[in-house]
Specification:
alpha/beta; globular; 636 residues; seven-stranded mixed β-sheet; eight-stranded mixed β-sheet; 24 strands; 14 helices; metal-binding; 26% helix; 3 domains; hydrolase; Mre11; manganese; 18% strand; Purple Acid Phosphatase, chain A, domain 2; Translation Initiation Factor IF3; endonuclease
Length: 636
């Protein structure tokens, strides 16, 4: 598409090719989901193969560093095979003699492992020879868990201390109503020539808690003193699509000091930067590099991007991924097919023949798209080799059709021709909704609902719903139902086998501490425990789910109902103003006036460019930062 100014006045020039010493080159990717379906004999290596391609592209384009926006791993506790391959690839492609051109200006020890001397930023470690640094936040799949002596840990912590990744965006959330608590975001400050980059990261936070932190004015961004001279990137890993009143982050919530938001978690590729109404920044959503579900969004061609930043200008070039398995899907309505194609929906043989023809057509479509994708990047059929077995999904709407074949048995006819020979077909019926009833995008299902087929229950019912129903029938006398539900969910989904025992032990210790300070007679023990249970449940809600404590001033929550309302998601940009804090390198001033930024996209080059807003300073030589020191100008 053509590139124009926001006022429509004309095209913008790209960044200058004559200033490579001032251009920071970044490889953007997210949601690699390494380890997804790794035991599958066909698809098991898809995620790690594409991650290898991302690293190869980073080396090919000679980037300064790689930026990942969460969910590097699919499982919270990756397997030994998964960790082994990931660390081996990172060592192979990111360590080496390539000179580092980006100078670290912030504290290299910010976020380092407690009790150890090595810095948090791996290329500042004199014992490591890093060629391409990798910066990453955590996602909802690989988030920190546990409560050991080193606190909550995740797989990225392991990669960080191994020296192959720079883990940023880890938050220690508390239940305190101290206005200085909450989410505090300190940037990694980098410089190459005359270009200065502030890199902000926020790892995944529970959606309800994130909503609470934003609404309660508890999200604080620390900014450099000379903040007008920096290009600011923010990495987030949250719901972008609204799946409920408290289950998404509004696109317009970020401060105008941000130039570009890199949005992880959403798997559909919207990598070309999109402007936000009423804001000066842009959002790029790279999407996942591997399909983890056979949904519409996963069928969009997958890309990573080369992001180039020069002074206050950026240019983004989408790069298609070649190793992604072909995926095609379609939907048919049998009632409509009966009219247009003349099939007899009362005859099972006739219906299955029709569906078989549609699946064969999808396989052929996948083959054609595979060849077109290779031709687009100049790869001949001989060089491309044989196509990987494609993922094929045909959704069949069966409303009004009483007799259907077994979809698993049908799918097995395509063994050796598709990568998912157990679930090629998915049958479903049109849903009827009661008048006036509002249903979220993903309704919560009950395991005891007799109107829902067993297959749909197993696919959609949530663990927390099962636990909630059980605990409602078996009321706990001492432990809080909400905390127990979360502990069981963590045990199941995160494979954290100590989550239940840790919750029980922490609850009992809290009860013992509170009871020791009270005079409780044996006759009143049950009442005292009931009261303690209520107090403990309330404290748990404040610390985990973001039930707002009372805060003085305009940002005070009116009541719990208001805190859960849709309107409460309209967060003012002032919530992300700088707050200073305990770090001299950052100021307590208000953010600078909104900067003018403009996006440019050119069809012939697939690039997106933003207009510079300020004249660059004289270029200093690129160099490494001194270990343990901050090289930015400090002020009182």
């Amino acid at each position: 598409m053509s590139a124009v100014n926001q006022d429509g006045s004309g095209a913008l020039p790209p960044i200058s090719d004559e200033l490579p010493e001032d251009t920071i080159k970044i490889m953007l990717a997210t949601d690699n989901h390494i380890g997804y379906n790794e035991r599958d004999p066909i698809r098991g290596q898809d995620a790690i193969n594409t991650f290898k391609e991302v690293l190869e592209l980073a080396r090919k384009h000679d980037v300064d560093f790689i930026l990942l926006a969460g969910d590097l791993f699919h499982e919270n506790r990756p397997s030994r095979d998964c960790l082994y391959r990931t660390i081996a690839l990172l060592r192979e492609y990111t360590l080496g003699d390539k000179p580092i051109q980006i100078e670290l200006l912030s504290n290299p020890d910010e976020g380092k492992a407690d009790g150890f001397s090595f810095p948090a930023i791996n290329y500042e470690d004199s014992n490591l020879n890093v060629g391409i640094p990798v910066f990453s936040i955590h996602g909802n799949h690989d988030d920190p868990q546990g409560a050991g002596p080193d606190g909550a840990l995740c797989a990225l912590d392991v990669l960080s201390v191994a020296g192959v990744i720079n883990y940023i965006g880890k938050s220690d959330l508390s239940a305190s109503d101290d206005p200085n608590a909450g989410i505090q975001i300190k940037p990694v400050l980098l410089r190459k020539g005359a270009t200065q980059l502030a890199l902000y990261g926020v790892g995944n936070v529970k959606d309800q808690r994130m909503h609470f932190e934003l609404r309660s004015n508890r999200v604080k961004m620390f900014m450099p003193k000379d903040k007008d001279d920096w290009f600011n990137i923010l990495l987030v890993h949250q719901n972008r699509v609204k799946r409920g009143p408290l289950e998404a982050v509004p696109e317009g919530m970020f401060d105008d000091s941000i130039n570009l938001v890199v949005w992880g978690h959403e798997h559909d590729c919207r990598i070309v930067p999109e402007p936000v109404a009423g804001k000066e920044y842009f959002i790029t959503q790279p999407g996942s590099s591997v399909a983890t579900s056979l949904a519409d969004g996963e069928a969009i061609p997958k890309h990573v991007a080369l992001l180039e930043i020069q002074h206050n200008t950026f240019q983004l070039t989408p790069i298609p991924l070649r190793t992604v398995r072909p995926f095609v899907l379609d939907e048919v309505h049998l009632s409509e097919a009966a009219e247009t194609d003349g099939i007899d929906v009362t005859n099972q043989v006739s219906v299955m023949k029709f569906l078989r023809e549609r699946v064969n057509a999808l396989i052929e479509q996948a083959r054609e798209e595979w060849h077109e994708r290779n031709e687009a990047v100049g790869i001949s059929p001989a060089e491309a080799g044989e196509m990987m077995l494609p993922l094929v999904r045909l959704k069949v709407e069966t409303t009004g059709v009483s007799v259907m074949s077994n979809p698993v048995r049908f799918s097995q006819e395509f063994i050796g021709r598709v990568a998912n020979p157990r679930d090629v077909l998915v049958f479903h019926r049109a849903k009827t909704m009661s008048k006036g009833k509002v249903v979220a995008d993903e309704p919560e299902l009950s395991i005891d609902d007799p109107t829902i087929p067993v297959a749909e229950k197993l696919q959609k019912v949530r663990v927390q719903n099962l636990v909630r129903e059980y605990l409602a029938a078996q009321e706990l006398q001492l432990l809080g139902e909400l905390g127990m539900s979360d502990a069981i969910q963590t045990f199941v989904e995160k494979d954290e086998n100590r989550s239940i025992s840790e919750f029980v032990n922490s609850s009992l210790k809290a009860y013992e501490k509170k009871l020791s300070g009270r005079e409780v007679h044996e006759a009143n023990l049950d009442d005292a425990l009931y009261e303690l249970k209520g107090e403990h449940e309330k404290e748990y809600q404040e610390s985990q789910l973001g039930i707002a404590p009372k805060i003085k001033g305009k940002t005070r929550a009116k009541d719990d109902d208001d805190a859960r309302s849709v309107d409460s998601m309209e967060v003012d940009s002032e919530m992300l103003d700088g707050t200073g804090g305990d770090h001299e390198a950052f100021s307590e001033d208000e953010p600078p006036p909104p900067k003018k930024t403009t996006t440019r996209a050119k069809a012939s080059t697939s690039k997106t460019t933003a207009k510079p807003t300020a004249k660059p300073k004289a270029k200093p030589p690129a160099k490494r930062g001194a270990k343990g020191k901050q090289l930015i100008e400090l002020s009182d």
